[in-house]
Amino acid sequence: MRAALAIVLLACLAGCLSPLSNVDTPTLDPSLTALAFAAPVKLTVKGEGFEPSIAVAPDGTLVATAAKTERPAEGEYLASWIWFSKDGGKSWQDLPLPKDPQATYWGGEGDIAVDAVGRTYLSDIYVADAALTRWSPGPVWDWTKAVMATTAPIDDRPWIEAHGDGVVYLLINTGPAFPTPSDLAEGRPTMSSKWLYRSEDAGETWTLGQGLWGSFCMPAASPVDDRTLLVVCHGGEGSSSKLQVLWSTDRGRTLPVEYSPTFELGTSYLAPGAAIDAAGTGYAAWLDDLAISVGFQETEWQGDQPGHVKYAMRGADVSWTMHDVTPFPARFAEIHACAGRAGTLGLSFYATTDLVVTAQSQWFAYVMVSDDADAAEPSWNVTRLAEEPAGTGTEPPGDFFECVVAPDNRVHVIFQLDKPHDIVRDGEASGIAADVITASQVSGANLLNGFR
Questions:
Q1: Cα(98)–Cα(405) distance, integer angstroms
Q2: Where are the strands (E) in 202-329, listed by range?
Q3: pTM of the model
Q4: Nearest residue to 173 via CA among 125, 243, 245
Q5: What residue ranges define each of the domains in the chain, with the CATH number in brackets?
Q6: Model confidence at 296, in pLDDT bands (50, 70, 90)?
Q7: In angstroms, rounded to a whole number, what is the distance separating the alpha carbons of residues 262 and 87?
Q8: Minimum mean pLDDT among 60-69, 221-230, 281-290: which range?
Q9: Distances (CA, A) of 236 to 94, 194, 322
Q10: Cα–Cα distance between 35 and 21 in angstroms, integer?
């Protein structure tokens, strides 16, 4: 885990898309400037953060979180920073939290979700267990459970999703693979390091966990109903790697595999993407790039072949249609998918135009958006989110970053920029500093950065 600089950027979808062929990928000039944004707003005024996440409430309230760089937690607050914005990201403030012992427990990293009635859920982990905090609309703090009583032997990197009136899903990486209690009870002693939990009472109680296949998985809860759940997983390395797209209509009780393509090059850095739009159309997104694990949270990009940005769309006949929407020749990492109105899809990722990745490679943060991603020949716009590189080196910054589409159909992206750091721990410099800032797009036109 590494500290990083997180930025939220808002991209308007209306009137800023241009066509992209699925066969002949056009070239984006990497020197083009990004869209115009208002002056950035710094969020981390109390300390640094990393691995940021973002979600949006039905009324448009944005909520964002980032794990704290310092351990144990700083001050009288959670182990993760958490903020909300009522004005589309122009200004932010802390979510309310009382001063109690649970406010300063040690934590690792968190994720955030909002259900259909506006409750906000923050899941955080501190190796031994997962913690959960809930706020009602307002926001008003409801409670913090420092011990959530998940059954995984080790809790790591939570993903949380919510929909309906208090239906919540928690997907946790357990580290080593174990069979889950639920699978054992049903006679399936399957070894798994990805455990899926479900709550149907707004986080008060949870199931015992269900095991999933794969190295990395990502869930998405449907905004159309409170029963449909999409989970996208990938596993393996190299051209033998597989993607599994699972679709459930019973809140994850059963998760049949509907689509399972093979990677051409291999699985790129970290998780695939999953999203469902307001019409109920599901999207699975992934990076096809030859990157292999060479150590704990260390990845090495192999060869000199450019990677691919791909997504598949679920049709009304339950078939999945794949699109290669690679915007320019590059190596890619850390994709995230987000969906809005019917056909609106956002894909955020890091990329370097160095096909042979070195210690001098510059990684930039990008977002691609389409308002007809459900069409046979969708159109796309791609935008670099900052003039400066998000990081320089053999890997992009941090671990994850996310996008979300608000009710006004604006895409919000929270991402990381690494900076030199002067904090010394145990006699060694930590190497990275982190702030979290936001910026708002001031123009919906995109005449420079679209596909040409």
A1: 30
A2: 210-212, 216-221, 229-235, 242-248, 257-259, 273-276, 282-288, 291-295, 298-301, 308-314, 320-324
A3: 0.88
A4: 125
A5: 5-440 (2.120.10.30)
A6: low
A7: 43
A8: 60-69
A9: 40, 14, 20
A10: 23
Q: How far, in Å, are 65, 68, 75, 217, 241 from residue 79 at the CA level?
A: 10, 6, 9, 24, 35
CA distance 29 to 49: 32
Instruction: Read off the pLDDT of each residue in 142-147 and give the average, rounded to a whole number.
Output: 85
Q: Any idea which residue has 């459970």 for tokens?
A: 145
From the list 122, 133, 127, the residue with the least C-alpha distance to 100 is 133
The residues near 242 (Cβ < 8 Å, ≥ 6 apart) are 234, 235, 236, 260, 261, 262, 263
Instruction: Look up residue 294 and give its two tokens.
Output: 């060479």
d(CA 172, CA 177): 12
Would you say 78 and 107 are in contact if contact means Cβ atoms under 8 Å apart? yes
Residue 332: which H helix or E strand, with range? strand 331-339
pLDDT-derived band of residue 38, with 50, 70 and 90 as boundaries?
low
- The pLDDT assigned to 114 comes to 98
Q: Which two structure tokens, joined as six digits, stand for 116?
A: 């259909």
Chain-centre distance of CA 213, in angstroms? 19
The pLDDT value given to residue 413: 85
Question: Could you count the other beta carbons within 10 Å of the beta carbon of residue 142?
Answer: 16
> Who's near 295: CB < 8 A, 6+ residues apart?
none
**Assigned token pair, 117:** 């009635």
Tally Cβ neighbours within 10 Å of residue 36.
13
Q: What is the reported pLDDT for 439?
A: 47
- Report for 26-30, 66-70, 182-186, 333-337: range of highest mean pLDDT: 333-337
CA pair distance 50, 433, nearest whole angstrom: 9
Examine the pLDDT at 22 and tell me if it is beyond 70: no
Residue 108 CB partners (closer than 8 Å, separation 6+):
1, 67, 79, 124, 125, 126, 127, 156
Q: Alpha-carbon distance 125 to 110, whole Å? A: 7
Q: How far apart are CA 99 and CA 295, in angstroms?
A: 40
Please list the residues that pair with 246 across neighbouring strands: 231, 257
Least-confidence region, from 74-88, 104-118, 159-173, 332-346: 74-88
With 0-12 / 13-18 / 19 or more C-beta atoms within 10 angstroms meaning exposed / middle / buried, residue 287 is buried
What is the C-alpha separation between 10 and 87, in angstroms, rounded?
Answer: 12
**CA terminus-to-terminus distance, the chain:** 38
333: tokens are 């990492």
